[in-house]
Write a structure and sequence with these properties.
With 334 residues, the protein is α+β, with helices and mostly antiparallel strands. It has a single domain (26-56, 63-329), classed as phage-related protein like domain (phage-related protein like fold). It contains seven helices and 14 strands. It has helices spanning 29-32, 92-97, 108-134, 161-176, 187-193, 197-203, 216-223, and strands spanning 35-38, 43-48, 74-79, 82-91, 145-146, 182-186, 227-231, 234-235, 250-251, 263-267, 281-286, 294-301, 306-319, 325-329.
């Protein structure tokens, strides 16, 4: 019987200081609309009707007669937070694999909490995208105006981005007296704009080199807004059996929750929720028992030799002033 070659014996251990974790780098739903943290399950936002504030109704009062009367009318917008929750488990075997002598501890509990928080972020991102696309902003129809793929057009003369921004600004200002101060772009809308010849020529009239791009700060100036938000998160409904099993990824901010034609949304929002300050939308969250917007819970399932975790959040995202937004679809391609 030949002697065993000990050099071929490999004991495989999980490296706890190295791990490959796929996740979205950034979620932007919380940046779109101001957040109201409350305690009630169902609430109403008082909304003053617009016309009474713009009518010229003051008049000359004759001696001994009452002053002209203007009616201050109020309506409401319902907000109904829904409890979103997610759970996960960490087995004793997983704990053991990450605590091999000589290796660093992976902190399974912390990773489990991050994992569940990420799940709630994906849900909120998709809910906000659905609201954005389903709302008729400024009477342009749900989904927005068709830009016919002309933002960042390779033929500079065909680029409509600046003209479309003016249309959006003028429409919002004419209807509300408020200036739009924010621009949301899907990843594919932004990636085409950053190399658009017309915008580059506008920024660099003396000429530009291949290393020059339209930056976020430059887009703020071109679009005449205070903030530009780029949404590029993805999700999948595919079950993955092994790493790199090629799950089908879809763009959360696409018009149909999948396509990559480009989306733009010009809107007005205050820096923070405030009384009598209009906003295109608001997000309402209920404080949990721990005083925060989200609460995580952990318990032991001894029979299954594992720890169980869950996390929950009560939230609702609503469009509160559709005349404070203007939307485009198919900005990058048709």
């Amino acid at each position: 019987m030949p002697l065993r070659n000990t050099e071929q014996v490999i004991i495989r251990q999980a490296l706890t200081n190295i791990a490959i974790k796929y996740k979205n780098q950034q979620y932007v739903a919380d940046e779109l609309f101001p957040i109201i943290d409350g305690v009630n399950k169902q609430v109403k936002v008082l909304k003053f009707l617009k016309a009474p504030w713009f009518r010229d109704e003051a008049g000359v009062r004759a001696e001994g007669t009452p002053a002209p009367v203007a009616n201050l009318s109020v309506t409401t917008v319902d907000i109904d937070p829904v409890n979103y929750s997610i759970g996960t488990k960490v087995t004793d075997e997983m704990y053991k694999q990450t605590k091999v002598a000589g290796n660093l501890d992976v902190q399974c509990q912390k990773t489990a909490m991050e994992f569940m928080g990420d799940k709630l972020d994906i849900k909120k991102e998709r809910n906000t995208s659905t609201l954005l696309h389903a709302t008729d902003w400024s009477g342009a129809g749900a989904g927005g105006v068709d830009a016919e793929g002309h933002w960042g057009d390779s033929t500079a003369a065909n680029d409509t981005f600046l003209a479309d921004m003016k249309t959006g600004h003028d429409t919002i200002f004419a209807a509300t007296g408020r200036k739009a101060n924010s621009l949301f772009l899907s990843y594919h809308a932004y990636s085409k704009l950053r190399i658009g010849p017309a915008l580059l020529a506008y920024l660099y009239p003396q000429g530009w080199t291949p290393g020059m791009f339209v930056t976020i700060d430059a887009l703020k100036i071109l679009a005449d807004v205070d903030r530009v938000i780029v949404g590029g998160a993805s999700y999948t409904a595919t079950e993955e059996t092994v790493a790199d099993d090629s799950p089908t990824m879809t763009q959360i901010w696409g018009t149909t929750d999948a396509e990559t034609k480009g989306v733009g949304f010009l809107f007005h929002r205050p820096d923070a929720a405030s009384r009598e300050i209009p906003s295109a939308g608001y997000q309402y969250r209920i404080k949990q028992d721990n005083g925060l917007a989200r609460m995580g819970t952990q318990w032991r399932e001894a029979a299954n030799h594992q720890d169980a975790f869950d996390m929950q959040e009560d939230t609702d995202i609503v469009a509160t002033a559709t005349d404070l937004g203007y939307m485009w679809k198919d900005t990058a391609t048709t």
